[in-house]
Amino acid sequence: MNRSAIRENAFKLIYSLEIQNTENIEEQIELFFESNEIDNEEAQKYIKNVILGIEKNKDTILNEIQKNLKEDWKLSRISKMDLSILKLAIFEIKYNDIPYKVAINEAVELAKKYGEDKSKNFVNGILASVVKDM
Asked: What is the widest separation between alpha-carbon atoms in the chain?
């Protein structure tokens, strides 16, 4: 499984957790691995790191998104799909030492595949602002 495929699985789990609003994240991670037959150690380690890292830094990540939105926008207005992509990319850029160009490119690709028509431009714009602020 290549890094893009691993990242896509991480995104799917982030999105799933976003919708479910579950209490036991560790259990959900294990269920996700089982149901998607992810037995690759590198993939499991990466996905677990991302999910727990986003949870640990949730407030900071959401604040990064909020402060880079247009004035009249609120977090609640962002689709869960786009929010999940943004959380993943911001975590990778700020906490996982992934080069920002790679993280943004991968996020835009996910937005093209899973988001709405305007998602790729929205995600790209927010992440470009986040990087500019760093």
From this structure: 44
